[in-house]
Amino acid sequence: MSEGILFVLSAPSGAGKTTLSNLVMDHFQALTPSISYTTRKARPGECNGVEYRFIDHAEFERMVNAGEFAEHADVHGNRYGTSKADLDALLTSGKDVLMDIDVQGAAQIRSSRKGGIYIFIVPPSMEVCEERLRARGAEDEESIQRRLEGARNEIKEAESYDYIIINDKLELAAETLRSVIVAEHAGGERVFNKVEEIFQLN
Amino acid sequence: MSEGILFVLSAPSGAGKTTLSNLVMDHFQALTPSISYTTRKARPGECNGVEYRFIDHAEFERMVNAGEFAEHADVHGNRYGTSKADLDALLTSGKDVLMDIDVQGAAQIRSSRKGGIYIFIVPPSMEVCEERLRARGAEDEESIQRRLEGARNEIKEAESYDYIIINDKLELAAETLRSVIVAEHAGGERVFNKVEEIFQLN
């Protein structure tokens, strides 16, 4: 059984990342999301170990100090983190992991481990990004403007990603994301080990 | 219009490369084969500029000396070569080029230009490779053994390729090759230029 591949997916708000990753997740049985630890309280209907692993602040702090997180962040006073051991267990079992994370988190992952594939989703234009944010209807003008400004800054970080997918037509973008996953499994370094075995090249 | 991508495809005999590249060529309108120059005589039905560009030995030699070939080789006294100018013209016009070439030719291409994507096709086992060679029915035992020995040596060169596709099930291998082509168009370096334009990041 060969090891799975870690796919790290980042995008600014309004790029359509969540819809896209759900579409692709439905397509690959072996593709699994990573589950974060968080200190925030479970909402009604959320189960421990499904959406998140719910822990208290003391335990979170212990894990931070023990270096158990591949990345962690503080969002409005709640803490979120991805356990290195969880990632390793999934990948070793042969599963691909799709990690949905912002650019800061992705940078932490990149510096904490080798071999992940980094994919950035961008909206086709700032106008579409704005439309998508407004379509959600839940935010006031000020927070939309703040998100747009944030989006533009995040998009600059796309430069350090292995792949950039411009999400213009959803089905086309999903096809590209699926292709990246299939293609990476044919990565030369990865497959050559198998080839050496098959043809006893050593 | 962004530039096309050069895909260089190598495989030992019996790997199923020709069937595979035909399947994939049918799928992508923008994917075009490169056309070689050769000194061999045109066979009945072959048209100059379709299968090959037919030239004489003197003209071939002139092109070699002028450095006009991205790669060239001598096969049983006939010479074959791919013109740098032809490749550049196709790629600049936005077409992807699929070059079907042996490991020696691929090595010449690699040292003569940047940016190509190198894909190696291997048979799923030495046994299948042998079956496929025998199924052609046209060769004697000695030449089959020589091809098998050659195949094993060529497979060692797979290590230097960007992608390796194990051609076990044809449809699956074709899907992988198609995915590589789609994924490479989402290559970060390639797309970031477009992103910089769209979002005026400069």
Could you describe the 3D structure shown?
The structure is a homodimer of 202-residue chains. With 202 residues, chain A is of the alpha/beta class. Chain A has a domain at 6-34 and 94-198: Rossmann fold. Chain A contains eight helices and nine strands. In chain A, a hairpin with a 2-residue loop joins strand 5 and strand 6. The longest helix of chain A has 16 residues, at 141-156.
Q: What is this structure, in a nutshell?
A:
Chain A is α/β, with parallel strands linked by helices. The first copy, chain A, has eight helices and nine strands.
The CATH homologous superfamily of the domain at 6-34 and 94-198 in chain A is termed P-loop containing nucleotide triphosphate hydrolases
Shape of chain A: globular
Helix and strand element order of chain A: EHEEEHEEHEHEHHEHH
Mean pLDDT of chain A: 93
Helical/strand content category of chain A: alpha/beta
Strand order of the largest sheet of chain A: 2-7-1-8-9
Oligomer: homodimer
Low-confidence stretches of chain A: none
Helical fraction of chain A equals 40-55%
Gross CATH architecture of the domain at 6-34 and 94-198 in chain A = 3-Layer(aba) Sandwich
Give the CA-CA distance, first to last residue of chain A: 20 Å
CATH topology of the domain at 6-34 and 94-198 in chain A: Rossmann fold
Largest interface: A-B, 37 and 37 residues
Percent of sequence in beta strands of chain A: 15-25%
Supply the CATH class of the domain at 6-34 and 94-198 in chain A: Alpha Beta
The total count of helices of chain A amounts to: 8
DSSP summary, beta strand count of chain A? 9
